[in-house]
């Protein structure tokens, strides 16, 4: 409350609320940013493997992704390829996971 009510009046003005929400949401990732991060880890491939995720991410994050990523089914798929694109958009409610 001290951020949006620095005078401790017990009230938050609409302008103070808007300023606060703008600051809070400015640093959030988007589906595209997450997708680009996976693309970098995947070496520009349209899929990623569990091995790469385990190598590059903390163990809990890697397992979270591995458990939730659908198999990649593109023509260039390799055994165990995971679809980081649909996973990224699903994280942000832009598709179903």
TrEMBL record:
Domain EF-hand, residue spans: 1-27
GO-annotated molecular function: actin binding; calcium ion binding
Domain of life: Eukaryota
UniProt signal peptide: none
Pfam families on file: EFhand_Ca_insen (PF08726)
InterPro entries (alphabetical): EF-hand-dom_pair (IPR011992), EF-hand_Ca_insen (IPR014837), EF_hand_dom (IPR002048)
Keywords of the record: Actin-binding, Repeat
Name recorded for this polypeptide: Alpha-actinin
């Amino acid at each position: 409350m001290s951020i949006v009510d620095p005078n401790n009046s017990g009230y938050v003005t609409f302008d103070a609320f808007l300023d606060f929400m703008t600051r809070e949401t400015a640093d959030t990732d988007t589906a595209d940013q997450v997708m680009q991060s996976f693309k970098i880890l995947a070496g520009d491939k349209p899929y990623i493997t569990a091995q790469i995720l385990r190598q590059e991410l903390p163990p809990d994050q890697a397992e979270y992704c591995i458990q939730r990523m659908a198999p990649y089914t593109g023509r260039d798929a390799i055994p165990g390829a995971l679809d980081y694109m649909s996973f990224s958009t699903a994280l942000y409610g832009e598709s179903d996971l």
